[in-house]
Write a structure and sequence with these properties.
Layout: H1 6-24, H2 31-49, H3 53-72
Helix pairs in contact: 1-2
């Protein structure tokens, strides 16, 4: 599990506050306000848990790419005897 840095947590608190402020002060209404509230909840949860699933997905993708490169570089014709 990849944890967020202190700066990442602070940034997520600020984003959560902005999303909640936009929907709570009725600067945006309707479906956009609903989406803003959901995004605020997600950002608050990631800040409180110090965990971001986006970083986890990025790390898995990076690992898969490394594995793919090592398999694709293999050429049986160039094998040492």
């Amino acid at each position: 599990m990849i944890l967020l840095s202190r700066d990442g947590v602070i940034a997520r608190y600020i984003l959560a506050f902005c999303f909640f402020f936009l929907s709570g002060s009725e600067l945006i209404t309707g479906n956009l306000a609903t989406l803003s509230g959901i995004l605020g909840t997600v950002e608050l949860a990631t800040a409180l848990l110090r965990y971001s699933p986006v970083y986890e997905i990025f790390a898995l993708n990076k690992q898969k790419t490394k594995l793919h490169r090592s398999v694709s570089n293999y050429n049986p014709a160039l094998r040492q005897r």
